[in-house]
Design a protein that fits this description.
globular, mainly alpha, about 210 residues
C-alpha cells in the first residue's frame, strides 16, 4: 500500500478495516488461509506503523490519552452501559448476574478488548474523524461489528453463533462507544467500558473459547 494512495484519512481507515476483516475471515480456515491471514495482519500492522503514524495519527495526540476529568458524565454513562450490557448478557446465557469466581483467561479477555478499542475507536475512528467526526463513529462501529461477526464465519461446524444478532448488537454497542470517544475526546471511556464488560462476562471462564486467536 503506497502512502500516496492513502493520503486521505478516510482511505486509511477503510484500508485498515479491510485488512482486519480479511484477517477475521481467513484466520481459522485451512493452513493456506491461516498463512494468508498472518500476511494480511502483518500488512495491516505495517500500514498502521509506516503509513498512518507519519501522518500524525490521531491516537498519538496527547488529548486522546488525557483522563476525561471534564467529561465525567460520559465516563459514568459508559460504565453504566457496560455493566448493564454485561449483566443482560450473563442472564441471557443463563449465568448468575454477577461472577462468583475468577480464572486467568479474564486477563487475556480484557487485553483483547483493550486492543480492539485502540484499533477501532483509537485508530479507525481517530483517522476517520479528520474526514467527518459523526461519520467516523458509524464507520468504526461498522468496522468493529464486521470484524467480530467475521471471526465466527469459520469453522462452520463449530459455530452456533447467530451472526446477524452478533453484528447488530456489536454495531449498536460500537455506536455508543464511538460517541463516548467523540464527546469526551478521550479513548479512556471506551477502554474502561470494554474492559469492564469483558471482566464481568469472562471472569469465570477457565479456558479460552474456541474463537480466541
Amino acid at each position: 500500500m503506497h502512502s500516496a494512495k492513502l493520503s486521505h484519512p478516510l482511505a486509511r481507515s477503510l484500508a485498515i478495516s479491510t485488512g482486519l476483516w480479511s484477517f477475521a475471515v481467513l484466520y481459522r480456515g485451512t493452513t493456506a488461509m491461516q498463512i494468508a491471514a498472518s500476511v494480511v495482519l502483518l500488512a495491516t500492522a505495517f500500514l498502521i506503523v509506516i503509513v498512518l503514524f507519519p501522518h500524525n495519527a490521531e491516537i498519538l495526540h496527547k488529548n486522546t490519552w488525557r483522563w476525561p476529568s471534564e467529561s465525567r458524565k460520559v465516563l459514568l454513562l459508559s460504565i453504566m452501559f457496560s455493566v448493564s450490557l454485561a449483566t443482560w448478557y450473563r442472564i441471557s446465557e443463563q449465568m448468575k448476574p454477577l461472577p462468583v469466581s475468577i480464572h486467568w483467561f479474564v486477563i487475556l479477555s480484557v487485553l483483547i478488548g483493550a486492543t480492539e478499542e485502540l484499533i477501532f475507536r483509537g485508530v479507525v475512528q481517530g483517522e476517520a474523524s479528520r474526514w467527518n467526526t459523526t461519520g467516523a463513529v458509524y464507520l468504526s462501529s461498522l468496522a468493529f461489528a464486521g470484524y467480530k461477526a467475521l471471526l465466527f464465519i469459520l469453522p462452520a461446524d463449530e459455530n452456533e453463533t447467530n451472526l446477524s444478532n452478533l453484528f447488530i448488537f456489536t454495531f449498536l454497542a460500537g455506536i455508543l462507544l464511538g460517541y463516548a470517544r467523540k464527546n469526551s475526546g478521550s479513548i479512556w471511556p471506551c477502554l474502561v467500558a470494554h474492559g469492564l464488560f469483558d471482566l464481568l462476562v469472562y471472569m469465570e471462564t477457565p479456558n479460552p473459547p474456541w474463537w480466541v486467536w
